[in-house]
Amino acid sequence: MKILIIGSRGFIGSHCVDYFSKEHEVWECDVVIDYDRPRYIFIESVDSDFQDIFINQKFDVCINCSGAANVPFSLEKPYNDFQLNTLNVFKILDAIRRFNNDCRYINMSSAAVYGNPISLPISELYDYAPVSPYGYHKQMAEMICEEFHRFWGVSTCCIRIFSAYGPRLKKQILWDIANKAIKNDIVELFGTGHETRDFIYVSDLIHLIDIVIAKATFKGDIINAANGTQIEIGEIARLTLKALGCDKRLVFKGENRKGDPLYWEADITRARELGYGQQIDIKTGINQYVKWLKENALL
């Protein structure tokens, strides 16, 4: 199978490259200039044009891991966030429609489309209710995927990622805790500590993507990527500090960051029906993340 991974130098994309290269012909695409990597396609970061990619090569699967997964960025630079998370999805799908119509397309979406749900767990049937520009742009991207399947028969699937973590991730809660722990006597975080997230370790996420390729219908499918368990941020912070071996004081500001949801827990019935099962629990995952930080002198 010939697979194109867009955003191949990012957190999820690089793990996709490592995993799928073991058994398939993988082509990479990203905004980083790299002449040393075989089957690598450079794409401009501004006004990206994906037509030549699908004119010159024919792919069985395209996994789009590109975009900006950053709520504050979407509030500060909404047009840039729209370009990266929405407009580029349209451009990629239009190129597939015109030049490689039998290519199956997987889009990395986000639980941010749910906003603050009124009940948990959240199934894929829950109404859109984003609370940030990032969430709105991810919602629009999902609708574009549905549009291209409905009107032009492009095979699409959106994977709604909740809280993915693991080696190579240099942002978000675990990264924030680790950096504050080595620089300060007090680790200060937003919120009360009782806010929850549904975490999925990156290797489990890649495993789910593999299952989706093999078993999803690609008829505009939407699939939650999580483990069906809500974990308090305070517990995540304590586990991270313990893995770091830090005896630092943990303080929560009591105020939530604009655009951040409060509580998340996914209904992962669809993922389980396809064959997904968690392999890395949260404690093991945090320990492996901290091990990666230490081995790469990031602490």
TrEMBL record:
Top-level division of the source organism's lineage: Bacteria
InterPro entries, per the entry: Epimerase_deHydtase (IPR001509), Lipid_A_modif_metabolic_enz (IPR050177), NAD(P)-bd_dom_sf (IPR036291)
Pfam families, A to Z: Epimerase
Domain NAD-dependent epimerase/dehydratase: 3-225
Coiled coil: none
This protein's name: NAD-dependent epimerase/dehydratase family protein
Record organism: Heminiphilus faecis
